[in-house]
Amino acid sequence: MELGQLNMLEALVLSWNRLIGKIPQELTRLIFLAKLNLSQNLLVGHIPRGLQFSTLKNDSFGGNLGLCGPPLSKKCGMSDPSELDEEEDSYFASGFTWESVVIGYSCGLVVGTITWSLMFKARKPKWVVEFLEGDFPKKMIRAQKRRLRQRT
User: d(Cα 49, Cα 26) in Å, to the nearest integer?
Assistant: First the structure.
């Protein structure tokens, strides 16, 4: 709300900040505001009307599915089923979700376990099998003893 007191502010870009709630009415007091970008947040409610807000375009508020009123085509108090489809599309297009991480981790775990068991059945690479069965440390101790004997 303190932003409404910045009388000389010409541009305000707050996109992708996960802002929650309503757009404060105090922002309509910014008479020099030429550019406002509140897109891709979690804002809800009516877009305030007033001075510079009447000159703003749709893209200033894009991605805030809870906003309504001019300049958006969504009327307040009505729900549009096509917007639900857009929300679902943006959910999958936004990148990795926890479900995809779990699926990837599970697949990697299965492939790794199968590869690991096949490697032990084939006894290759030999040094890994020897190390895990306990033969490798014994060979290292013998080699160290040989080196000590050679030095003396």
Answer: 11
Average pLDDT, the chain: 78
Prior bond of 48 cis (ω within 30°): no
User: What's this model's pTM, rounded to 2 decimal places?
Assistant: 0.47
Rg (CA), the chain: 31
Percent of the chain's residues with pLDDT above 90: 10
State the virtual CA torsion across 53, 57, 60, 64 in degrees, nearest 10. 100
- Enclosing H/E stretch for 10: none
35-69 pLDDT, tens per residue? 889 998 999 998 888 777 778 888 888 888 888 88
CATH number for the segment(s) 2-93: 3.80.10.10
Taking each helix axis from N to C terminus, what angle separates 126-133 and 98-122, rounded to the nearest 10 degrees? 90
Peptide bond into 137 cis (omega under 30): no
Per-domain boundaries in the chain: 2-93, 98-151
State how far the Cα of 66 lies from the Cα of 83, in Å rounded to an integer.
10
